[in-house]
Amino acid sequence: MKQNESKKRNMKEFRLEERIFPRAMITPTLIVLLVMTAYPLIFTLIYSFTDYNYLKGMDNAHFILFKNYSTLIKNSYFRQALVNTVKFTFLAVAFEMVIGLLIALFVHGMHRGKKVMRTLLLLPYLLPTVTVALSWRLMLSVNYGIVNQFLTSLGLPVFNWFMDTRTAFGTILVIDVWQNAPFVFLLLYAALQSVPEELYEAARIDGASKLQQFHYVTYPHLRTSIALCALMRSIDTFRLFEKVNILTGGGPAGTTSTITQFLYTYGISNLKFGFGSAGAVVMTILVLLISSIYIKRAIKK
Hints:
Layout: H1 2-47, H2 67-74, H3 76-108, H4 114-126, H5 129-139, H6 146-153, H7 168-192, H8 197-205, H9 210-238, H10 242-247, H11 259-268, H12 273-300
Helix pairs in contact: 1-12, 3-7, 3-9, 4-7, 7-9, 9-12, 11-12
């Protein structure tokens, strides 16, 4: 009896240790995550209700409730930046998803040179954003850019690509798609590896065309990956800042201004942290709304 009781006690202690040990291991990580995320979020929310200016200090800050938010909404430049951001996000994600999917299907169907092709295609995404922006600014320069020189040699008109209202938005869009389409390609190409080859063989035996194979075999297996990829790219694109700040500064005439660029120009660079925090809260809410739409659609499917 004593041995049985001892065994039961040991088993209980072992099971207790099994439950406690994993929690003890992840506790330090959870604490770090809370400090790095919850703390800034809470104070950003608090600052958004104040007129906090870094030069004046927090001691001279006053609670002004929703004045920052009302000022933000009434600001015509902010509304234009909001429209530009939503428009840019929609177009960029749409082009990146289509191009990335087509490249993934092409590389997946290759019989030779897959490794070399994958490496070459991923190079734009591996480059730092600042490097990409500066490289494109050099290539599209009005005075010595290789693109304008090529157009001149063909007798075609040249453009001030970043300072012309007709071309600035589209140029930033092309650069962003060029850099980030490889990310979509990488995720969807990895998802294609999980599609059983037997399904394609069965479809070919049944006489299915390439389009029918994609519709009935490939797409059902990629649907979740496509939704996840679109969500990740939407969140990242909504935060677009570096390219705009380096190449156009939000101009010309605000045609390339984004929410982050607006907040930097009218909030952070002027050290108006209260106003900037209100804009950050609004942007966070918009990102959450976009994310919830993607997640709901993915769950329904």
